[in-house]
Design a protein that fits this description.
α4 packs across α5. With about 400 residues, this protein is an alpha/beta fold. The protein has an 8-stranded parallel barrel, surrounded by 8 helices. The chain has a 4-stranded mixed sheet with strand order 1-2-4-3, sandwiched between helices.
Length: about 400
């Protein structure tokens, strides 16, 4: 028995994470000790919901959710004991409500599924004010318990080998070799390799990227500033993808996301050149709604959300706020049609919660793994991080 989640034809093209909603439905049955129950959840449009609302409630227009508990039929048909009933949800109405409360669509859909399911189990907020309060409190409790349950998704782990090159450049020699390090990372379970070719060539060199392009077996992601020289280089070697990042000559590491709004023309032109060469483009941005929309408008395929403020938070409350911002931004980006990665500052202590977010496909981690490798070796350092990222 389970929750049977379906979408009508009119919303089949909506950017919904059906897997996530199914997982949350199944988790709800578990939290309510209804593992043997069977429920149908149908997601539909406003127009379709309006028809049901008029037919069964004699009210005009759509509503957000309708619940129909299973009842004995007049013709004597016996309803299976485990059958709870049906829940209908208007995605259009849910989207408007989500925007009004500054929540994501999937946040609101989850709330409506909880609300509908409690109706099927006997709760009714219209019977009395006392019961309405009790139902509302239980809804909030269930939602919170869902939020603390880790996702069943398994993001990819991309490893940045820049800091191997940093050690090499400190002596001006040939060791350690970031190309060899990349191969060891892949053998240990990395799903991709990241290299940032900076204008001042402080670590990764042109030769490194050329050889990486020939030797990386998983995926090579070239991080780059929007400069003519680096754009031409990327078009020459054609990496599996590029990530556009801001770059300041005096910074120790990338400080914050790229201001897509303030560099709209440059970003758009760079993406168009990459598109013609068949290179997918990600943009490294702060978790900000305006920057997400700007990235979409510029033609990006991915955004990589900057996790630095989350990693650098100096209090539990600040970390929680930064985490929620990343969570909401990841879902918002997904809903607009963008694919979502994340990275910057992630380590063995803080990567787990980010890896558990269902809309994030890949984490880019470098410094923490290379630092750990100094003590335990690169193979073990990669495997330890992969265990955190892939088995959340």
């Amino acid at each position: 028995m389970a929750v049977h989640l379906s979408l009508t034809a009119k919303i089949a093209t909506y950017p919904l994470n059906r897997k996530l909603l199914q997982i949350r439905c199944d988790q709800l049955l578990h939290l309510l000790h209804l593992e043997k129950a069977e429920v149908s959840v149908v997601l539909m449009s406003d127009a379709e919901m309006a028809g049901y609302n008029e037919q069964y409630r004699k009210k005009q227009g759509p509503t957000n959710v309708l619940s129909f508990p299973a009842e004995q039929a007049d013709d004597g048909f016996v309803i299976p004991e485990a059958e709870l009933g049906d829940i209908l949800i208007s995605v259009d109405t849910a989207r408007r409500e989500a925007e009004g409360h500054q929540h994501t669509l999937h946040h609101r859909l989850t709330e409506l599924i909880i609300h509908g399911l409690l109706h099927l189990t006997g709760y009714d907020h219209e019977r009395s004010e006392e019961e309405a309060v009790r139902m509302w409190d239980f809804e909030k409790e269930l939602f919170q318990r869902l939020q603390t349950s880790r996702s069943a998704t398994m993001p990819f782990l991309a490893i940045n080998v820049d800091h191997v090159a940093t050690v090499r450049q400190a002596r001006g020699g040939i060791e350690p070799d970031p190309v060899l390090a990349a191969s060891l990372c892949e053998l240990a379970g990395a799903d991709g390799i990241v290299a940032h070719l900076r204008e001042d060539r402080r670590h990764i060199q042109d030769r490194d990227v050329r050889i990486l392009r020939q030797t990386v077996k998983t995926k090579l992601n070239l991080e780059m500033a929007i400069t003519p020289e680096i754009i031409d280089f990327a078009l020459e070697i054609v990496p599996d993808m590029v990530t556009l990042v801001p770059e300041k000559r005096k910074e120790l590491t990338t400080e914050g996301g790229l201001d897509v709004l303030g560099n709209e023309k440059k970003v758009r032109k760079a993406i168009e050149k990459m598109r013609k060469a068949g290179i997918p483009v990600s943009i490294f941005i702060d978790p900000d709604a305006a920057q997400i929309q700007a990235a979409l408008d510029a033609g990006a395929t991915f955004v990589e959300l900057h996790t630095g403020r989350y990693c650098d938070a100096d209090s539990a409350e600040d970390m929680k706020q930064q985490f929620r911002l990343i969570e909401q931004s990841a879902e918002l980006a997904f809903e607009t049609g963008l694919r979502v990665n994340a990275g910057h500052g992630l380590d063995y202590r803080n990567a787990g919660p980010i890896a558990a977010l269902p809309f994030i496909e890949e984490l880019s981690i470098g410094h923490a793994i290379i630092s750990r490798a100094v003590l335990v070796g690169l193979d073990q350092a990669v495997r330890e991080m992969a265990a955190i990222v892939k088995f959340v």
